[in-house]
Amino acid sequence: MSNCVFCDIVAGKAPGRIVYENELSMVVLDIHPYAEGHCLAIPKRHVQWWHELTAEENASLFAAAQVVAKRMMDKLNPEFVCMYARGRRIPHTHIFLIPTQSGDVLDRFFNALENFQESPERLAKLKTPESLDNALHILKEK
Ligand SMILES: [Zn+2]
Prior knowledge:
Blueprint: H1 5-10, E1 18-21, E2 25-29, E3 39-43, H2 55-76, E4 80-86, E5 94-100, H3 105-118, H4 121-124, H5 129-140
Antiparallel strand pairs: 1-2, 2-3, 3-5, 4-5
Zinc ion binds near residues 4, 6 and 92.
């Protein structure tokens, strides 16, 4: 066993409910689901952050995520499939794929975040046209 549960699942050394896999990626059910069918899309290579993946790995990972998201839409009938990427608690990048309905746990969480964004002064400053232009300038620079 390695010290990474996702590497162990990829290697077949730990149990994982594998929903789909392609050459470079795998999609498994999350054992702590926020909703029925909540999955994690992971690269087969141990990489902490999704932005450290190769272009080929990224394409593979997002293709795998889309295959499973379409199955979720067909079979679980959510409003949409929420996606976000983490890698902090388990330092092997994993993209959350969560079938979402209006008012469910995740929807309320993101609605709370949106309300949070409205309130604190520090974050409110980020909404000014100057701040947004500054962020645009920073990210557009090559
Ligand atoms: Zn790993």
